[in-house]
């Protein structure tokens, strides 16, 4: 359960906030608020698509690693040794 929350915490928390906001709009019977609600849901979806992690191709040679480091994009370098 903790792993599920860890991987999808952004969606879970933002979804709960949107549901609370929708309940408040229903209680107030706000008609214009539904347009804002729809835009917020759209913004959350676009934010999730833009910020999610993607599987990257693993560099095979030292020159590919050096090219990735100087490319200007964030790079996570993990060095592993059996010894």
Instruction: Report the sheet-strand fraction.
Output: under 5%
Uncertain runs are none
For the largest beta-sheet, the strand count, sense and barrel status come to: none
Structure annotation, total helices: 3
Rg result: 21 Å
Distance between the termini: 35 Å
Description:
There is one protein chain. The chain has 3 helices and no strands. It is an all-alpha fold and 83 residues long. Helix 1 packs antiparallel against helix 2 (32-51). The mean pLDDT is 80.
What is the element layout, followed by pairings?
Elements: H1 2-28, H2 32-51, H3 62-69
Key traits:
single chain; 83 residues; mainly alpha; 3 helices
How would you briefly describe this protein structure?
With 83 residues, the protein is an all-alpha fold. The chain has helices at residues 2-28, 32-51, 62-69. Helix content is 66%, strand content 0%.
